[in-house]
């Protein structure tokens, strides 16, 4: 490929609305262009990298025994209504009607469609196990599309689905997909961790997310320094913290706390450590106002709260109208004196119930209680007690008791054990070895292809631009003649270019009549793993300058050796 023919319009300035490094560099390096909020066009450089990621995914899916299909993006509402998810899925689903007023959606995921497909074709245990996958665009109406390709309304995803006779078969399929994902992300050059995860709207039992660790990650990952335990912070299971010695219970006392509407402000005003306070956070969970209580220095785990409420709907922060409806005074709330009703629930974290003489809201403006003793002062028959706090790095590893670390992660893949959630709802059965109908046992496995592209940049870049892992770089090498107007230099550059192509290197020849400095800046910005410079020194000594983008190493080699040298260096990247 010649750079003069490549459609890659680079930018010298970073667009003002670009939030993260991957978005900034992909815009500046001519990889993508924003068409609307959360919608992007992939230009040739991005599409080359996407196709390389897809090739790796295809190879590993087929190696694991999965077969590729392609399902419609537009899905009829009937199959979602049959599974019970049409109303549950939420506002992220993009819904539409055809000219006959029939309802459809743009596929955010394909569990209903694949189950409907297979139930009409698979009817015997002899046809199992079966594993099918596809790669296509998915559509989700994100409330706040941001971070470029990491949270967009349209994104490229690989989704696979396994069908087995029983849980033992599902275990084998799950492991095969898990192992395939490890190979995919290793080959893509990512530093990642598989972590225990919540199944979310997809449902099912066991689930693991594959997290590319990076500062721009939206997910918090907790992992142990001593063992291989790792989990999304939402699924981490903190121990119940108990006082070393039971304290004598003090008298419940009302104190004035004018304008102290946050627990931090209260702790400062009363000169208390946060761990001697309790914090109230109010949610709306499917129409019920829920008061969640945790220790003052802890945070509510919204996934755990959703499970405690046995709800399929994610919690949302309560509105002023919600608080008014159940008579709560924002900033001064605790369970003392409160009782559950049909539209009001109280959920208290287990650790709170082990506390003594703490400070919390008095349920009246500008006032708090001190010496709250939850076992004495809460109506425990009228509330739910559950583990609803987020695990922290100060907790101990649930597996080995070791020290924990927190990191940011970008979710690039997730695997789920669905079990019979969809097959039972959609009546997808097969005749087992006894001749009786049984529901198919399913698994679901997703990879964010476009998100993997962004994650690679978030992990590998410097102040000059992208540093691509060799396997997914748009080009593996670039040949840069210092002066494209010099016929002798262009002739040598073409010789090097042809030799590399013959050796199987994916190479670009920068034949543009630009200054050398512009070409070098573009090479660093775009992130070609190897740059080969053809200069007057090359004409005099027959030596080519080779520069490795990853570590900045520069050296020279003979013209006749350039193909061997580049191929060897690429193998090491």
Automatic annotation (TrEMBL):
Keywords, in A-Z order: Aminoacyl-tRNA synthetase, ATP-binding, Cytoplasm, Ligase, Nucleotide-binding, Protein biosynthesis
Domain Aminoacyl-transfer RNA synthetases class-II family profile: start-end pairs: 51-469
EC id: 6.1.1.15
Entry superkingdom: Bacteria
Keyword Nucleotide-binding carried by entry: yes
SUPFAM superfamilies: Class II aaRS ABD-related (SSF52954), Class II aaRS and biotin synthetases (SSF55681), YbaK/ProRS associated domain (SSF55826)
Chief localization: cytoplasm
GO MF annotations, alphabetized: proline-tRNA ligase activity
A Pfam family it matches: tRNA_edit
InterPro entries per the UniProt record, alphabetical: aa-tRNA-synt_IIb, aa-tRNA-synth_II, aa-tRNA-synth_II/BPL/LPL, Anticodon-bd, Anticodon-bd_dom_sf, Pro-tRNA-ligase_IIa, Pro-tRNA-synth_IIa_bac-type, Pro-tRNA-Synthase_IIa_type1
The reaction(s) this protein catalyses: tRNA(Pro) + L-proline + ATP = L-prolyl-tRNA(Pro) + AMP + diphosphate
Compartment list: Cytoplasm
Family named by the database record: Belongs to the class-II aminoacyl-tRNA synthetase family. ProS type 1 subfamily.
Swiss-Prot/TrEMBL domain comment: Consists of three domains: the N-terminal catalytic domain, the editing domain and the C-terminal anticodon-binding domain.
Quaternary organization: Homodimer.
Purpose: Catalyzes the attachment of proline to tRNA(Pro) in a two-step reaction: proline is first activated by ATP to form Pro-AMP and then transferred to the acceptor end of tRNA(Pro). As ProRS can inadvertently accommodate and process non-cognate amino acids such as alanine and cysteine, to avoid such errors it has two additional distinct editing activities against alanine. One activity is designated as 'pretransfer' editing and involves the tRNA(Pro)-independent hydrolysis of activated Ala-AMP.
Protein name: Proline--tRNA ligase
Classification lineage: Bacteria, Bacillati, Bacillota, Negativicutes, Veillonellales
Originating gene: proS
